[in-house]
Amino acid sequence: MTARPTLREVLAEKPFALAMSSGFFGFFAHTGMLTALLEADLAPVRVTGSSAGALVGGLWAAGLDPAHARAALEGLTRGDFWDPAPGPGFLRGRKFRVLLESLLPAPSFLQTRVPFAASVYDPLARHTVVITEGRLAPAIHASCAVPLLFHPVRIGARFYVDGGVADRPGLAGMPAGICVLYHHLASRSPWRSAASMTVARRAQLVALAIHALPRPHPFDLASGRRAIDLALARTRLALTRPVEDGAVHV
User: Fold this and answer.
1) CA–CA distance, 34 with 238 (Å, rounded to integer)
2) What is the DSSP string of 10-54?
3) Are 24 and 215 in contact (CB under 8 A)?
4) How much is the pLDDT for 187?
5) What is the DSSP track for 119-167?
6) What are phi and psi of 186, to 5 degrees?
7) What's the chain's Rg over C-alpha atoms?
8) Strands 148-150 and 127-131: what pairing?
9) CB burial class (10 A; 0-12, 13-18, 19+) of residue 206?
10) Distance of CA 81 to CAs 95, 102, 185, Å?
């Protein structure tokens, strides 16, 4: 019987794109996972994502290396983004935007090192919108604007909220016919149904699901360091594991 290829072998065989799911403060885990890929010389040729996935994917596509991303996230405090204000959400989001703009080496989609797409949700039209042009900060901000937590974000004449509302996997901006690694944040938020947590499947997609990670939140950002370290270690392990039924679970 022929041995199944490992995740590393699958990703090294041909160029691949990376899609990263939403997951509240899951950007810590995404950072650890991406760090492991890049240290193994496995760099994606395209990146898409929703919410936490759009944040990490957008920062890397804009030129921020994982070490600097990690340093910024580990130094994150609630005061860096906590700006309560009346409105359709608890936080105004101005501090988060300032933080984003300070971290992005490139300001626009035109300047990214690889093509990048961020999923956002239009609550009036009730559908996902994929943003691939214009300024990066507003698009990433909108993709991360969790309803009830952040005010909606205006881009042009429309207001948008978190891309994970209707595109949790962050795959809406991924074209067909390309090999995709999909990083699935396996921990379930209290407001999500079990059905919504199903690992995405599509042609030429391999899913990586890392289980039992810490769940950082605004009042426990310290657990983010552990989430980065665990995701880094488990992605290194996952790269040595065979791909079974289109996925690797660690």
Assistant:
1) 13
2) HHHHS--EEEE---TTTHHHHHHHHHHHHHTT---S-EEEETHHH
3) yes
4) 63
5) EEEETTTTEEEEE-SSBHHHHHHHHT--TEEE--EEETTEEEEEGGGT-
6) -80, -25
7) 17
8) unpaired
9) middle
10) 5, 13, 23
Q: Which residues contact 8 (CB under 8 A, 6 or more apart)?
A: 40, 42, 239, 240
CB 189 within 8 A of CB 23: yes
Structure tokens that stand for 201 in this block: 């499947």
pTM, 2 dp: 0.95
From 20, 16, 10, select the one nearest 144 (Cα to Cα).
20
Give CA–CA dist 34/56, Å, rounded.
Answer: 9
- Express each pLDDT in 22-34 by its tens digit: 999 999 999 999 9
User: Which residue is listed with tokens 């959400």?
Assistant: 89
Q: Please state, in angstroms and as integers, the Cα–Cα distance from residue 48 to each residue in 30, 88, 191, following that order.
A: 12, 27, 24
pLDDT at 197 over 70: no
Q: Work out the pLDDT band at 198, boundaries 50, 70, 90.
A: confident
Coil, helix or strand at residue 179: coil
